[in-house]
Amino acid sequence: MDLKSKHAAPVLTDPVPVSKSRLGISSLLSYSSPGAAFPSGLYLTIPRKKPVPGKLDDVRAAGWLDAMKASSPPRKKLTKDFNIEITSEDNDVAYSSWMIKYPSALTSFENIMNYAKGKRIALFLDYDGTLSPIVDDPDRAFMSNAMRIAVRDAAEYFPTAIISGRSRDMVYEFVGLTELYYAGSHGMDIMGPVRDLACADDHPNCIRSTDKQGKEVNLFQPASEFLPMIDEVFRTLVENTKGIKGTKVENHKFCASVHYRNVDEKNWPAVAQCVHDVLKDYPRLRLTHGRKVLEVRPVIDWDKGKAVEFLLESLGLGNSEDVLPIYVGDDRTDEDAFKVLREGQRGYGILVSSVPKESNAFYSLRDPSEVMDFLKLLVEWKKSKKGKGAL
Ligand SMILES: O=P(O)(O)OC[C@H]1O[C@H](O[C@H]2O[C@H](CO)[C@@H](O)[C@H](O)[C@H]2O)[C@H](O)[C@@H](O)[C@@H]1O
């Protein structure tokens, strides 16, 4: 199969409209590419360098570099023992104003539970930056054992799924809990429960399979035809970026990630240009921006939001008034899930962020440790309900 075409340009970034002035917060961090969507200098001042003929202008024009700079909260200071991102005092005022719009899910817990009365909660959790802190080495993004216990306990009471940009196998290795459902590759690789024949009947890319414990499951891979293409692109990206110190390329089966967190900022244009040049040959692939990572994925109408809908359906919880889905995530790709919940008026998105960000979420949590506290509160709440005889 000819996996590439020399004649078409790739679909570039996926800008999300951002209103910066609603809260009067000038430091609002944008998920989208400011260079592409806004007048220059709105969020970041990108110094104008003399263009390298025919080369770096491509990625500048496409807004990639601006998006790369805006893609993760700046590291103000690092604690000695934990390599995690935290905000400085300067940002606290902006953060407090931002929380008027995105209240803490901890302090609003009672409100959330009032709404949850008589409903079944379904939990959806992102992995990186939500269950594990953001660290320099993606291979070492371990979740703490305390977090693992909190997730396991929550899964005992609520159907719980992890939806990650990583490959499904990799995220399962990190989490290691058999009681959950897993979706990898930004929802393009879902292993869900077998309820009835609906999955196979409704979706051509859904097959019956068995999980690692030998349990029968439905495996839904809407981008399965892209497997050889992603593999080819992954190998090309590894080859083409190997001269750029600090670059790391990951193969997540139905998408590939090019990390530049450990690349000297002066070499970011070279990283971007490499990815841009490779993508030019693959019009059926597109680029999205994550936290200090460029992600190459198929142009298909599928994302974490669709994955949430699919899982709800598979769990027998779709289109049901008495179900309250809660999705906790920190990344731009999680916005698709927040949007599905918000627009369908079905449940709550909770954004994990230590800096103000425009979002489709309803609530916020500052960091993974607050996510753990929230999960514990959910379990306590459920236990107290059980104690009172209500299930
Ligand atoms: O959907 P997620 O589970 O949040 O996965 C998104 C990406 O997470 C990983 O990268 C991010 O976390 C790394 C470890 O903390 C960090 O080093 C990197 O800068 C972040 O972008 C993962 O490696 C990516 O492939 C995922 O797409």
Written account of the structure:
The strands form 2 sheets. A 9-stranded mixed sheet has the order 5-6-4-3-2-1-11-12-13, with helices on both faces. The chain has 391 residues and is α/β, with parallel strands linked by helices. Helix content is 33%, strand content 16%. A hairpin with a 4-residue loop joins β3 and β4. Among the domains are: 88-188 and 302-388, 3-Layer(aba) Sandwich (Rossmann fold), CATH 3.40.50; 226-298, Trehalose-6-phosphate phosphatase related protein, domain 2 (Alpha-Beta Plaits). Residues 6-28, 30-54 and 76-82 have low confidence and may be disordered. The chain is globular and about 65 Å long. The site of ligand L263DTV3 has 24 residues, from β8 and β10. Residues 126-129, 134-136, 138, 141, 164-166, 250, 252, 257, 259, 261, 290-293, 295, 331, 333 line the site of the ligand O=P(O)(O)OC[C@H]1O[C@H](O[C@H]2O[C@H](CO)[C@@H](O)[C@H](O)[C@H]2O)[C@H](O)[C@@H](O)[C@@H]1O. GO terms for molecular function: trehalose-phosphatase activity.
